[in-house]
Design brief:
The protein is an alpha+beta fold. The protein has a single domain, classed as L-fuculose-1-phosphate Aldolase (3-Layer(aba) Sandwich). It is built from 6 helices and 8 strands; from the N terminus they run αββββαβαβαββαα. It has an 8-stranded mixed beta sheet with strand order 4-3-2-1-5-8-7-6, with helices on both faces. Helix 2 packs across helix 4 and helix 3 crosses helix 5. It is globular.
Amino acid sequence: MSESQRLRLIETAREMNRSGINRGTSGNLSVRFEDGMLITPSGMAYESLEPDDIVIVDTDSVQYGRREASSEWRIHYDIYAARPDASAILHAHPEACTALACMHKPIPAFHYMVAVAGGNTIACAPYATFGSQKLSDLVLAAVEGMQACLMANHGLVCLAKQLDKVLALAVEVEQLARTYLHCLAVGEPEILNDAEMERVLEKFRTYGTQDR
């Protein structure tokens, strides 16, 4: 099972770059595994990854494997510990999300699809040094009850139940960020009120769940 999960993790990481969500080795990707997680290694090009390059981190945060885990492993580790609904986590530096994050701007309900991340607003976690426990703590607070957040002066974090779902969510949030930036270039967009977003969120609870 570990081998197939490692291969899916590598392929999704490569797709993350092909989709434009990430560039180079700046992002990271993980999947829940047994009582811990599998995560991409630090500073390695995704195209060169082999299954044995994927790092295991157990529930005591001990790392196993021939590589060192991504510098942001704490974010993944802490989210898995706090969120039983998360089985895949993606961190990347997509252009539009990162631009908003550098302005410390959350993504408000300017469009109903903001609800795809689970709430009325996609928050922006305050800044802290990359790889630090403080950053992990801030991100964990920002994604409470949500499936995505921005990270000030940094990038994006998304969580979902599956690798394909977490990548699709990241693509959607990046598109929302890009559209929001276009709006801000003209002026402040109209924001949907909480009552309308509650209606949208209710619809999203069953959206896309039919059997095929």
